Amino acid sequence: MKRTTGILAVATMLMAALPAAAGASDHGDCRDPATPISAIQGDGADSPLDGQVVVTEGIVTVDLQAESELSGFFIEARSGDGDPDTSDGVFVSHRDTWTPLFNPSVGDFVRIEGTVDEQFGNTQVEFLSAATICRSGVRVPTTRLDARTYNADNEAYEGMHLEFRNTLAVTDTFNLHRFGEVWLGESAVVEQPTNEFEVGVDAEALAEDNMARSFLLDDSSTGSDPDPVPYLLADGTLRLGDTTEHLSGGIFFSFGQYRVMPQDPTAVDFAAQNLRPGPPSHDGDLAVASFNVLNYWTTLGGRGAATPEQLEVQTDKLVSAILEMDADIVGLQEVENDLTHTPILTLLAALNAGDDTHDWAWIGELDHYNSYPIRNEIIYRSDRVSAVGDPVTLADPAFDTIPPGRDTPVGRPPVAQTFSYDGELFTVVNNHFKSKSCSGAEGANDDQDDGQACWNPVRVRQADVTLGFTRHLIRSTGDSDVLVIGDLNAYMREDPILTFERRLDNLVTTFDSDPYSFNFFASFSAPWIGRGSLDHAFATSSMASQVASLEVWHINADEPRFLDWFDPDVTAPGPYRSSDHDPVIIGLDL
Fold this sequence. Notes:
The chain has helices spanning 8-16, 37-41, 147-152, 176-179, 193-196, 201-212, 308-325, 342-354, 397-400, 456-477, 495-501, 507-511, 541-544, and strands at residues 53-64, 72-76, 89-93, 109-119, 122-135, 143-145, 161-164, 168-172, 182-186, 214-217, 243-244, 248-254, 257-261, 286-296, 329-336, 360-362, 374-381, 386-393, 412-421, 424-432, 482-487, 505-506, 518-520, 530-532, 535-539, 547-552, 584-588. The chain is α+β, with helices and mostly antiparallel strands. The strands form 5 sheets. An 8-stranded mixed beta sheet has the order 6-7-12-13-10-9-8-11. Helix 3 links the parallel strand 6 and strand 7 (161-164).
């Protein structure tokens, strides 16, 4: 958000009062006594001189005077005051003074007179009434430190010019295309604490460590929707785990976050460390996949595509992903709950049009649907496997209840289908548990600040009911081979997953030493952040013995979200960013 104020007559007067050369003026000579920058900053969150007119001196460290940038520049004292609690740098705003005649550059030693202001939490000097360039070509002061030191007291570095010593890894790009923001983590990506540890001190310690080594890189602008999008690599993406070194910039506070503002964002070099993976491979005779397809709706303007062009791109990307994963059975989550079945039939037609080798089929209509806007579906290659009997679902309060404060149920009923391959029977149960969003959550279902977010008891109940559903399927089919797959909206060490592990084998942890399928966007206001597995695969003991491989295909979670189907002119190629979840592919050797 950019702000411009002032009256032309006042602006003319201010411009006349701003000499650009060294020498005496009504704000004194260069090197005359002046208010130290550290005194302007003070040792607290707000300046003790807020609202006062001051004369101060400093070296320009970062020059971002263009209106498309910050409309100002950072200055820093030649040497600090020795107090670690007070910053030695401050931002000087041109935004309200219209001062084209005063145009300092990096390395200029300047003397300025202006008003101290806490601009939305950022201490700065503005409304310049006099300014002088005392000397040019001065060495720019730079404080070299690591992310943990910086985060121990961000306020102590506000306005200063910092360089980070350690290798920094991309941990989030959620707002890259909106505000030019990238979250960075010292040394490595950020892991979701409850994906690594059960609720308790270890998870809390990891959450604190994530925050201690993470910070925000900005594009040195207060605008939105940057064009071009900054920081992208040559292949048009910036994936989690890609790295940069020797990052430097001025420290600015805005929109509730301390952020690094580099002198030239185009000069910030990222190195690709997490290349886009090629098509997955699986062992065994056939494969089963779980895939959350990010609101595949053919009703335009709903949760999914808003235009025919968006729907076309979304469909093409999903077809590319499904065909390249080479699975014979695919459990889909987040398909529009349309009783005409137009969405699943549309996707099925596109798959058959794009696949010259196999024939794709849908298990068919169920005998129960609740009123949730999205539902679960199962599709399969009918030339590879045969559906045995009708699809089965479950009508149960664990999924169908509409609690007070909500207008939709708490879940999507699980969908099951028995298949035959070369005479061998097995059953696939496709699930999508209640999300972690807190709408309508009360009491035990509210966020307990333990990393499991809202509705955790409901998800545990859904896990219990699904286990009972699995036992019912075994009795009804007479076959104990069952796969339980889907988006369970719970990370690896959370209560719903532990509930499953008491009865079923966790295939993801068996085959993947570093499992993740989703990345929750970073924010210092939400310590439970990072990448982790929301998409799971479990098996009964007899089924687990026939599992030959499992791969989480990282085509989505690592990618910037703007590369999906939202803008048909700006999208990643083929399967990449076809959704926000990575598919899980299980190879079976029956």
